[in-house]
Design a protein that fits this description.
Strand content: 15-25%
Protein name: TMP-TENI-domain-containing protein
Helix content: 40-55%
Largest sheet: 8 strands, parallel, barrel
Number of helices: 10
Organism: Xylona heveae (strain CBS 132557 / TC161)
Oligomer: single chain
Family: In the N-terminal section; belongs to the thiamine-phosphate synthase family.
Function: Condenses 4-methyl-5-(beta-hydroxyethyl)thiazole monophosphate (THZ-P) and 2-methyl-4-amino-5-hydroxymethyl pyrimidine pyrophosphate (HMP-PP) to form thiamine monophosphate (TMP).
Structural class: alpha/beta
Bound molecules: 4-methyl-5-hydroxyethylthiazole phosphate, magnesium ion
Shape: globular
Radius of gyration: 16 Å
Length: 225
């Protein structure tokens, strides 16, 4: 399946980031602004609430014909018929996720090192979330801050493999650094396929505008290039 990873929205349900906005409305605004794929990431709600909110978001993403993935929870993804799942290194193993979700599902894995990235690529991940790029309050206690230099090393190593995997950078991405991250990653063969963003869109006063600004920055060669 051809998936556009260029502007990947990852949701956050914490009041500090949502600032009174309704999450489903924020996702719709972000879709209007041009996000190309959406992941529902919610570490606190109970299962019934996860399923309810995931269903609501999925109704919206289906209207915009954008793939919808669930973070961590294969059971929730299966329950609502989501297009995919994103798992971290401590979640269900990739082979089991693939068996449960089927060959057409979009499966993403977080990778913070060359070894993690290569293992997930060999294991048949469709894409890798590479990071953490920059320290971010959205995800505290991240194992490692890899920066653009670390991302470049991972991309260089992946490009030498037969297995083809898409990649998105995540962690502290915003309108001020998006073009630089993409530009610097291009020095490593094909570069990143996209950028994953949480607070720069979910926490924006105007999520549609924030998404649209990021989308045009991503599509445009940087002024400094
Ligand atoms: N994984 C690595 S960093 C991160 C996740 C889920 C959070 C990124 O959030 P933000 O607000 O875009 O920095
Ligand atoms: Mg996880």
């Amino acid at each position: 399946m051809l998936v556009d990873y260029s502007l990947y929205l990852v949701t956050d349900s914490t009041p500090a980031i949502l600032k009174g906005h309704n999450l489903v409305d924020v996702v719709e605004a972000a879709l209007q602004g041009g996000v190309t794929i959406v992941q529902y990431r919610d570490k606190t709600s109970d299962t019934a609430d996860l399923i309810k909110t995931a269903r609501e978001i999925h109704e919206v993403t289906l209207r915009y014909q954008v793939p919808f993935l669930i973070n961590d929870r294969v059971d929730v993804a299966l329950a609502i018929g989501a297009e995919g799942v994103h798992v971290g290194q401590d979640d269900m193993d990739l082979a089991t996720v693939r068996r449960l979700m089927g060959k057409n599902a979009i499966i993403g894995v977080t990778a913070s090192s060359i070894e993690e990235a290569r293992t997930a690529a060999k294991g048949g991940a469709d894409y890798l979330g590479l990071g953490t790029l920059f320290a971010t309050p959205t995800k505290e206690n991240t194992k490692s801050i890899v920066g653009t230099a670390g991302i470049k090393e991972i991309l260089a190593s992946l490009s030498a493999m037969d297995e083809k995997v898409s990649t998105v950078g995540i962690g502290g991405v915003n309108a001020s650094n998006a073009q630089r991250i993409l530009y610097q990653s291009k020095a490593a063969f094909k570069g990143l396929d996209g950028l994953a963003v949480v607070s720069a869109i979910v926490g924006a006063d105007d999520p549609k505008q924030a998404a649209s600004d990021l989308r045009s920055l991503i599509g445009r060669p940087p002024a400094f290039a």
